[in-house]
Every structure is written in structure tokens, then in C-alpha cells.
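Worked problem 6 (solution included).
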Amino acid sequence: LERFLDDIRYQPTWRAEADRAADYYDNRQLEPSVIAEMQSRGQPILIHNLIAPTINGVLGLEARTRTDWQVTADDDSGLEVAEGLNFKLNQAARICRADRAVADAYAGQIKSGLGWVEVGRNNDPFRYPYRVNYVHRNEIFWDWHSQEPDLGDARWLVRQNTVLTDAPEVM
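Solution. The predicted structure is:
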């Protein structure tokens, strides 16, 4: 456990740069000190965001070219099974809003370089058994010694999630 925590503690400092890239997309391109100085001089704060329209174009292209997920059979004997699995998979993806989670993760990748999707079981017995959610990049830490892009050889992956326990109940 100590080794894992040390690995997390000494990861490369890429998160600040990713946050800065996301800020540029969100029209926060000037430092607060620069904004305060401009306001003190009575100078209007003009920001010409060239990043957001470009990224929005890429995100629109992703939405336009999105297709249903597909299971394919290895041979003719598995065609019926593949069709049944396709039906169940696309039904689950539609009910869980998996396309929305994948689109949000893709937007995170385009804006700041990294996006995650969580697929898990739903604890509520009255809802669909699975859930698919977008996970913010700052909640995930992983083994930086992994050589595979899909983290297939990673020794560990940690999700740090803060849950507010004193939040008012929603009815």
C-alpha cells in the first residue's frame, strides 16, 4: 500500500496543464491577477476564444458519426447469438445512457487529454442493473509504469471520489 501511495504522490504533474487546457475551452484564459489589473485600469476584458469553436466542431463530428455498438460472430454458427447479444447490448446502452457517458469522456479527451467511463452494477434493485457514468480525470490515478495504452498491464488503478455526507436529502 505504501508503494502505491508513493506512486500516486510522485506521478508527473500533468493535471495542472490539463486543468489549464480545460479553462481555455471554458473562456477562463486570463489569470485572475491580469483581470484585476485590467479592471483597475477600466480596461474591458476581451477574450476571443478560438479553442472552443474548434473543439465544438470536433465534438459535433463525433456525435454525427456515432453508431450503435455491435457484436460480431466469428463464424456462421454464432450469427443468431450475435444478433441476440446486439439487441441486449444496445438496449442496455440506451437505458444506461452509455452514449452520453462516452461522449462526455470523449469531450474530456479532446479538451484536456483524458476521459474516463465507469461501467458498474447499480445498487438500486428498482433500476436497471447496470450504470454507465463519466468520471472526471482528477478522480483517477493509475500505474504510470504501464506500457499498454489500455492499461492492460497496469498493476493498479485507483478512483478517489469525495462524497458529501452532510448534503441535504433530496426527495
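Discussion: The chain has a mean pLDDT of 90.
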